[in-house]
């Protein structure tokens, strides 16, 4: 069992007068400053964080689109309901916090579901009905693919997948001809019921067949990635993290900053998480192990739950925040194995979670300071990027 050592804390900042202002602890609403701060001299500032705008966005709404596609397979017997690949379940679990078991009751999607996700970067998730043949000339392919960030193709690994694979390959070939820069992410889904060996065999087979098809058509370097996923564990969040990270142009800078933070603060690993979806948008360059990712993800759940139960709206908070936008929540947990988890709120949507040995947290002043510098650097990077 992990034990909670400290909960909400604050970071104080000297005001212009030079005096330090005493503030009550920030509540863990994980809502804060960077995107929302208003500057009296510039009441409509451009947001400092990346909003995911695509440079070639035609409509100008600036929202990258993730398309969820995959085949629904009709069974030979009309009384047996068709096999569905799991697209709506993925979207509901990742973006709407639906418990995985409740997806059993989801209805089949009859028309394209457009879901706007408001998070550290706004994007849209379009869930396509499995039976829709968007390669039919009646569809406006440019409308569907013209502005997307990534196409996520969901294949049911518990079902026969050759048909689904054929359609995937046709789609990839179409995209390679007309939209070659779109990332294609293949989710080999529902692997929870498969043995370790079997799921890797399936992955190998799918990768091989796709690559053969692509190289036959002369597309050796198509941007296609494969992920083993299930809504019943963290793999679906991990896979989405990888998908989203590819849409963040500042990713190498973020990783560089996290590397510097880790090496100067004695940290083993650091993640920046989007606390609404539990997608991590960046981590340092040491390898990600699933266990550390899972524990960080569970940690966010605990913090968000605690803040929802015990958080309160303080009178005058808005005014206080307008004066000092440097206040954030912080929490430290010691794990049974002696490791320490340190969470620091970055802004309304993002939290920094660091994993470190017990010796490192003894220098908490240093860690707080370095995290403050990291936050400032982050704000500068995104601020500079937008000018
Ligand atoms: N075992 C397992 N079942 C899953 C998983 N993801 C989804 N399912 C189940 O798959 C079934 C179909 O899910 P949907 O999300 O409705 O499938 P869909 O692809 O959106 O279907 P259409 O809307 O008809 O295209 C549901 O009963 C889910 O519970 C998974 O990771 N593992």
UniProtKB/TrEMBL annotation:
Q: Where is the composition biased (Basic and acidic residues)?
A: 9-18
Reactions catalysed according to its record: GTP + H2O = GDP + phosphate + H(+)
Q: Does the keyword Nuclease apply?
A: no
- GO molecular function per UniProt: GTP binding; GTPase activity
Q: Where is this region: Disordered?
A: 1-65
Annotated GO biological processes are: cellular response to starvation; negative regulation of autophagy; positive regulation of TORC1 signaling
- A Gene Ontology term for the protein's cellular component: Gtr1-Gtr2 GTPase complex
Q: Which InterPro entries match?
A: Gtr1_RagA (IPR006762), P-loop_NTPase (IPR027417), RagC/D (IPR039400)
Chief localisation class: membrane
Q: Which SUPFAM superfamilies match?
A: P-loop containing nucleoside triphosphate hydrolases (SSF52540)
Q: Where in the cell is it found?
A: Endomembrane system
The highest taxon in the source lineage is Eukaryota
Alphabetic keyword roster? GTP-binding, Hydrolase, Membrane, Nucleotide-binding
Q: What does this protein do?
A: GTPase involved in activation of the TORC1 signaling pathway, which promotes growth and represses autophagy in nutrient-rich conditions.
Q: What protein family is recorded?
A: Belongs to the GTR/RAG GTP-binding protein family.
- Describe the subunit structure: Component of the GSE complex.
The name on file for this protein is GTP-binding protein
Gene assigned in the entry: GTR2
